[in-house]
Amino acid sequence: MELLERFAAGDLEAFEVLFRQHQKEVYAWIVRIVRDTGIAEDLTVETFWRIYKHRSQFRPDGNFRAWARRIGTNAALDHLRQAHPESELPDNLACASTGDPALGSERRRQVKEAFHQLPAKYRLVATLALIEDEPYANIAQAVGISESLVKVRLFRAVRMLRKKLNSLRPEVTTK
Amino acid sequence: MSNEELDKEMKELLKQAIAPAQDSELRRDLWPQMLRKLDQQPIPVATVPWFDWLLASLAGAALLFFPGIIPALFYHL
Question: Of the candidates A159, A37, A35, which has an alpha carbon nearest to the alpha carbon of residue B17?
């Protein structure tokens, strides 16, 4: 019996093989959304727990990778929804740089604050599209929506961000 | 200013404030953690909800007390 068939039938050894094959990729996707290594590890485990829980819904001829990514995205989205809105944006992830020195710390704080206040589903799309440069098609597949809806959410996220930034400090975005 | 220009401007602003993730590599095997979670939160066995049992009981009782509806039921099936 094939690995995916054995997994769908509830074979724990097959699940372990799939876990070890895909854990790095699922983690790498989630950490880019939640931007906290500890939370991303927990969410990776949560993702695979959900995968195992719903194994009977998986078609063995389907794409496990895409399925796992979608469940991981949902787990990350649930986390963003539950996270306290007043908490700071997690920042323990190694980033490309510590930020543009030309951009003042106060302005950076404002942008972070405005971004963190976005509703979870908009923040998710904006993080992947604007910060991580992920193609719309990948985001659409991971979230389970159309590319058009990804663009709509992105447009709304940008509009909300501009509005929040304008209310915080008009000179930030007005030209 | 067009939407694309606005997106680009916001993208630059965001990237300056929140840099893209550079190190997204998993440092350790999470399988032991997975096993612990499976021990602590076993996958629930699929159970029939109580209202399904109630509906089945009501349907059974109806067939028992009013057997005349059986032909009508077969007719509509």
Answer: A35
